[in-house]
Design a protein that fits this description.
369 residues; alpha+beta; Creatine Amidinohydrolase, Chain A, domain 1; Creatine Amidinohydrolase; three-stranded antiparallel sheet; binds zinc ion
Length: 369
């Protein structure tokens, strides 16, 4: 499969500049620069206008930029020229009067520096222009995401088959990371969450020193990153000891909420309507106050991308979007259950990209003797 068409992506972005009220755009968000150019380093900005496209970087990246973006003009500054000054010079040369910047990816300090150098050039905040393009994945991106899902699934297979009562959360995390790398991942898609019992009740816990045998509930939220930079994001709960009625009940409520929500995903449906389906099922079961986060999110080059599924989201599903669906119930001090899968919005519905079994019986793990 041929690689991404970066110039087509840039053209689409340039076409959106007019309605954003700017005649040029300065991109400083790392993932956005990567999406538009293929450049995998950092500290590198992209200036776009209908007349001129230019990468602004420094001497450390001169060779890498030639390799990764051979068809792009590059302005390489040396250590004596601050980024803001180099940028102001190229913007003046390109005769841009109203320069958009990425409000979500510029610090107050950087903005101050730019303002000091830009004199007559007007700096206009923009938000989400490239993120909007990134919501819908192309064929090549979808293949990368499928690969990332597969690496993650093979990795968890190793963890499950080798699980032992005396492993700590950290041990499990390292086994998982190493396994995903052995299956071709460049690394985990994010720091895996491995939580036993009460730690599983913290939606964003770090793997610590609890033993797998400290509680019957083990929650793992993990994903892989492909060498091309695309990620996957899954969560499973494993039962490793005596299961209480409450644990089974909570698991089944979460699973029902997830399955009903996934079933509703198709083009034209509002993200918040899908969030509501899951949220109502959890509330009706009496656990409403134990599910505080949004139902899911887009992902790709970053682990959290537009679109968002939450009660506030106005966004509407379109074919090619890829989202997680991850309801959870967290009982403080006791345990938590979250079930997360990766879903592609298709022309007439959706496809569940992840296939790790998720029924209650599948969650029961026998230790290796
Ligand atoms: Zn996750
Ligand atoms: Zn997630």
């Amino acid at each position: 499969m041929s690689g991404p068409n970066y110039s087509a992506r840039r053209s689409r972005l340039i076409r959106s500049l007019k309605s954003a009220g700017v005649d040029g755009l300065l991109l400083t968000g790392e993932a956005n620069v990567r999406y538009l150019t293929g450049f995998t380093g950092d500290s590198t900005w992209l200036m776009l206008s209908s007349a001129k496209t230019l990468i602004i970087s420094d001497t450390r990246y001169a060779t890498q930029l030639k390799d990764e973006c051979p068809d792009l003009d590059v302005d390489i500054r040396d250590a004596s020229c601050p980024m803001a000054e180099a940028t102001a010079a190229v913007v003046r040369k390109a005769k841009i009067g109203r320069l958009g910047f990425e409000a979500d990816h510029v610090s107050v300090a950087v903005l101050g520096g730019l303002q000091a150098k830009m004199d007559v050039i007007e700096l206009i905040p923009t938000s989400g222009l490239t993120e909007k393009l990134r919501e819908v994945k192309d064929k090549w991106e979808l293949q990368q995401i499928r690969d990332a899902v597969e690496m993650a699934e093979r990795g968890i297979g190793v963890v499950r088959a080798s699980l032992r009562p005396q492993q700590t959360e950290k041990d499990v995390r390292y086994t998982l990371e190493a396994a995903m790398r052995s299956f071709g991942a460049s690394g985990p898609g994010f720091e895996p969450i491995v939580g036993v019992g009460p730690t599983a009740a913290l939606p964003h816990a770090h793997a610590g020193d609890l033993l797998v045998s400290d509680s019957p509930v083990l929650l793992i939220d993990w994903g892989a990153e492909t060498p091309s930079g695309y990620r996957s994001d899954l969560t499973r709960v494993f039962f490793t000891g005596r299961i209480t009625k409450q644990m089974q009940n909570v698991y089944e409520v979460v699973l029902k909420a997830q399955q009903k929500a996934i079933a509703a995903i198709k083009p034209g449906v509002r993200c918040r309507a899908v969030d509501k389906i899951a949220r109502s099922i959890i509330a009706d079961a009496g656990f409403g106050k134990y599910f505080g986060h949004g139902l899911g999110h887009g992902f790709g080059l970053e682990i959290h991308e537009s679109v968002r599924m939450s009660p506030l989201s106005d966004q509407v599903f379109e074919p090619g979007m890829v989202v997680t669906v991850e309801p959870g119930i967290y009982l403080p001090g006791k345990f938590g259950v979250r079930i997360e899968d990766d879903i592609l919005v298709t022309r007439d519905g959706h496809e569940v990209l992840s296939s790790v079994p998720r029924e209650f019986d599948d969650a029961i793990v026998e230790y290796l003797a």
